[in-house]
Amino acid sequence: MSIQESIRQTVTENQVVLFMKGTPTFPQCGFSSAAVSILKSCGADFVAVNVLADNDVRQGIKEYSNWPTIPQLYVKGEFVGGSDIMRELFSSGELQQMLQQG
To answer: Can you tell me which family this protein belongs to (predicted)?
Structure first.
């Protein structure tokens, strides 16, 4: 299975996926930490993928989404955005609605 197929499988088989630097209990950058905090504030169950554990995933997710930065949030297989977009959607209440529909 290619890295792109593996990423596609991860984002389609899980409702909420966060590609991040580090883990939810030990984020390795401020943006990943903010993304985890936002998802926890929403009460979301999510799968976290630590891109620092595999450089192929780290590069592959940027190609998959055509988005240059990490973290990256996927909800129901759709790319939502990074931590800044998550913060905006959370402030407006849109993120909570996305996460509750399902």
So the answer is: Belongs to the glutaredoxin family. Monothiol subfamily.
